[in-house]
Amino acid sequence: MNDTDGTWKTVPWNQRKFHRKAKKQCNHVAVNQECYISAKPVQFHLNQISCKVKELCGSTFCAEFLAALHNAFGNERHVKEIVCYALGTPTESKSSAYQLAMLAIIRQFLADIDKLSTMCEIKEFMEYFSKSFLRKKDVVLENVKCSLFDPVFTMQDRKLINDLSMDVLKENEEGRREATDETLFYMIHSDKWITNNLLWKNWSTENLNNLLVVGNSFMSIYERTPSSYLKADYKYLYLVNELDLYSEIQLPVYKYKEDTFNDTSVLWFPAKKLILAEAELRKSYQENCPTYSE
Q1: Distance (Å, whole) CA 248 – CA 266
Q2: Of 7, 53, 234, 252, which alpha carbon lies 20 to 30 A from 227's?
Q3: Residues 6+ apart with CB under 8 A from 2
């Protein structure tokens, strides 16, 4: 990925863990015992997201992130929906705000992925998007629906998300979302039980093949966690590794906010691997949703 590599042919592009930290008492107005909203207007938070979009779009981190998505999905994938879990509260957490800014970039990138085949084109896309973000409503966004849920969302978070032309899910799915079409699940730092629920809900060759994930590195989970523990408490997360069902590209760390995208990967489930394990998939499926002791 050398910027000065003369072999690139430039074609102009045109056309958590949950963040459950205690809320600070300053700059807040109490609405009731359970709901607080930031005293700052939504436009302030939109401006903050816009600044983070520009910052990310000017980084090699973002270029490598988008290149990993392209390598994983390429022109063979046509994502129609992004579902985001465990974002945290972007009006209160800088890490959450950075993750929301990156989500906005990814959404437009996936809408235009067919036009972007080289690193130079990806960088031109980043430059264009950083300048046009929030200045116009690109109709391309309608091609990629984006829905989010986190139980910690405040009223201001919901307003911010809606103003970014994204939706807040009405119910807490706890990861139990069926991927009937190709769907990207953006779940950075989410808990293992959410990932396990997602895998359980999509435990078939067709649905797993529709499943694309930007989240915690599976390789890191397997390196850090005893397999006996995973097998007992997170059966489907265990089986994904045991049956060799997934492929992974580990993403770089954003050096200016190292705790925001650390230990994050792009993960997908290739059809060839799923077909080989089809009998095991059917045999290992259990109808009842997993339960957890924690």
Answers
A1: 6
A2: 252
A3: none
